[in-house]
Each structure stands twice: as structure tokens, then as C-alpha cells.
């Protein structure tokens, strides 16, 4: 039976928390889920362009946006990222023109 | 430069929408993100047990819970699944003892 194995990110302070060497030294990375509201009717192309706008500048903040999912009906978008902080995630989104409404660290994952 | 490729699930009605053969015939599958609130202080073990409780019964509804992420500080949990409907996702969560507060179809993904 397919069991639920914990991801390595189960404890931010754990010794095996991923570390990324950035221009600013060494950041302990965490996973974040951020949420955008008010994007009713977003299209596949618009999602792709918004995601690309993040990818283009993310390295400046030591962030990597792994995935994004969108519900055009409710206008809700979820973005999963690995980053040194929630603030770094929001700075990338703001510079790309689409600040998040919520940013949550998600240290636990299965 | 790492481009943003669209996932096959970009259009629920698209001909390449995944189809799952279930005991009830043939369901066109979609991806869903559901959200649970009020789980402040959830531990890694509790998340693992909750996810396992879903995995144990999901096949009854033709659902598959792919991933779950948790923020113990805000008590927010995000679950990504593939399912024939939002109702099927909620039925599994209810039977497992943890109904979702929101369930969104996320037909677009990058």
C-alpha cells in the first residue's frame, strides 16, 4: 500500500534543511505556499507569463518558484516555492507585478 | 533559461484530460487544491497520519491525493489531488475525519 513518506523539509531547523549558496552568502531554504486572489478568468497563457516573470528575476532573491496552479473560476492561484524567507517570495512577486495575498511557510510536506 | 511549460492539465475539457477507469466506469480527472484551516500546531506525524487516512480510502471515490503541505503556525494545510470532482475530494476528507474548508479545481498549472 502506498505509504505517506515525509519529505526532507519536515522541519525547517532540521540539519538536512536545504541550503542555497546565493550572492549574499548561504541561506537556509524553506518551502512556501503563496496565494493570489482576484484573478478570475485567468487564462493558461496569462498564468504562464506571470510564472515566467517570476522565474526571470527570482535568482536575485535566492528564490525558486517550483509550481503554480490556478482556478480561473474563483480567481485563486497557488504558488509553491523554495526561498530563504516569505519576504523574499513577496519581493519577487511584487517586482513581477503580482503581489501575493498570503504567503505561508510550509515546513511539513507528505 | 528555464521556461514555464504548461502541464497537460491546462484545460479540463481538453482531449488529453486524464481519464481514470474506476469501479463506476470512466471518470474525466481534474486536479484540485483543497485547503484546511484551524490546524494550528499540527505535527509531522499528525500530517502523515491524516494523509494516510485519505490514501487508505481514496480509491473508493476514484481520487488520488498527490501531495499535502502544512503550515503549523497558521494551521493551514494544502492538499493537491486528482479526482473526478470536488465533491469526491470532500467525501474522502469527510470520511477520513478532516473535511476541507475550501476545494478548488485547478485546471491550469505550470
TrEMBL record, chains A, B:
The protein's matches in NCBIfam families, at most eight in alphabetical order, are given as:
Ni_bind_SCO4226
Q: Where is this region: Disordered?
A: 1-21
Name of the protein in question: Gualylate cyclase
- The signal peptide, as residue positions, is none
Amino acid at each position: 500500500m502506498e505509504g505517506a513518506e515525509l519529505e526532507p523539509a519536515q522541519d525547517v531547523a532540521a540539519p538536512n534543511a536545504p541550503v542555497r549558496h546565493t550572492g549574499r552568502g548561504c541561506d537556509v531554504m524553506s518551502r512556501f505556499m503563496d496565494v493570489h486572489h482576484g484573478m478570475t478568468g485567468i487564462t493558461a497563457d496569462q498564468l504562464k507569463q506571470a510564472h515566467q516573470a517570476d522565474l526571470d528575476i527570482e535568482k536575485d532573491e535566492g528564490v525558486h518558484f517550483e509550481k503554480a496552479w490556478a482556478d480561473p473560476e474563483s480567481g485563486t492561484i497557488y504558488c509553491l516555492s523554495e526561498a530563504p524567507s516569505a519576504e523574499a517570495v513577496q519581493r519577487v512577486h511584487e517586482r513581477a507585478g503580482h503581489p501575493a495575498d498570503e504567503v505561508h511557510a510550509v515546513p511539513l510536506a507528505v
